[in-house]
Predict the structure of Phosphoacetylglucosamine mutase.
Amino acid sequence: MPPSSLRVVYAFAREMHPKTSEVFIQYGTAGFRTKANLLEHVVYRMGLLAVIRSRVKNGRTIGIMITASHNLEPDNGVKLIDPDGEMLEQSWEEIATRLANVSDNDLESTTEQIIKEVNADMALKASVFIGMDTRYTSPRLAAAAVHGVIALKGTPKEFGIVTTPILHYCVRCRNDNTYGTPTEEGYYEKIVGAFKNIREKLPVGGEYTTTLYVDGANGVGGKKLNIIKKSLGDELDLVLYNLGGNGGKLNLNCGADFVKVSQQAPVGVEHKPWQRVASLDGDGDRIVYYYLDDKEKMHLLDGDRIATLLASYITQLLSACGAQLRLGLVQTAYANGASTQYITQQLKVPVTCVKTGVKHLHHAAQAYDIGVYFEANGHGTVLYSENAKNTIKKIAEEGEVEQRKSAGLLLQYIEMTNETVGDALSDLFLVETALCARGQGARQWMQAYTDLPCRQLKVTVQDRNAISTTDAERVCTSPEGLQTRIEELVSGYSSGRAFVRPSGTEDVVRVYAEADTQQSADKLSAEVAQAVFDLAGGVGSRPELPA
Ligand code: G16
């Protein structure tokens, strides 16, 4: 493409998606995320970048997802998906940030400069898949993405409203047809098909019951489960709540993030004691479970629990089929200390700790033959190396009868896993299968270990980037004195641990604390929040200590 045709890049920007805000915006934990009204020019420019990226990848398809996932309704966001269905390569985040922030007048020259820098052959075809969540601002932003793609003569394909993981899956399939068919129906056939196959072989028994309540966060995940529900027959009876009607607002007092952070049951669900409930987030990429006991006390089964359940079930199948494969688990600093202890000491599974953000966990999990990665907030999946898949396939074909059976189950388990990214729907089927195979209800699942009480808080500061961290975010390196203060505070608590980090999706500093009692965890988190407020330029009202 000769440089003169880049003029259309400017023309589209000026006429349809002008940059109207001077606020600097950064490609964060999961792409750009802010108030929806500040995003149109950013999304348009990501349409441009997706075309350039596609050409650098020899015309392979790139994805653009319009979503702010767990954030509240007024926010929105955009992130790019790489050809294997993974998050955008990290070295391109700086390029994305640069392109998002230049003035309209400099957009044409910056685009040209980026094309040169990354050595994109603009004569190649380029393909971009575009999906969006249910936010009312999403269609307009999706249209901006389409314009960006067209401006650089790429081919956009719109998927409408899909979960984030469905789009990741479709991108992967488009570039690798051995993975599946790149459509929403293809996704259901693969994931739900494998679930039904596996469940035909597993008798329902013990404490496991086939009824599952689901809190859909008033987002897209619940809507897609409503489609899937009809095809599940007797295998799983989904009772769906918070599907977006009746005035329910996206992620507001419901959904995985609310349940995990507030440690409260969501509104909109009619609870029954001991009934297990799965809570999804707004774009269907996170899931946590919980139940209320007969005193209405909530018991949370978060991402750490899901990880331990999946890791132990896969380990059980591996040993039953006699496969020698290295399984490891990846967590972040948010993982409950008790879960890490259980995994390393009881399950004897190695654990890697990395920075927050699925992209970091995903890469670390690739170091294992089978890598189970989960953030405590319920974002995660399982990755199986080619070596692992081939080893299990061989046993399924050539092993002893019992080994063949376990290897067969494991192959279906792999088929049911969305390996491109954390996926609430795929994870739901993985959890339900493991529980069914073990004849366990949520109570038995809960008995594996006892969580240390914990608390998360948010503090608003002038500039959250004033906080820097190291050692997988467990140690704060600036502002000066904050880490020393945190250590002093932590030393006053039995089993105390605390850390702080700037959020990559909200304009806040996150505080995490755990200790031997809930009261201590609450107090420690509030003290650390005060330290952040004092030393990192807090704004608004001071965080309060619990009464
Ligand atoms: C995104 C990321 C997750 C991360 C979460 C919170 O989730 O994909 O990896 O844990 O944001 O990040 P932070 O603490 O930096 O705000 P989601 O579900 O919102 O896309």
Notes: The chain has 18 helices and 19 strands.
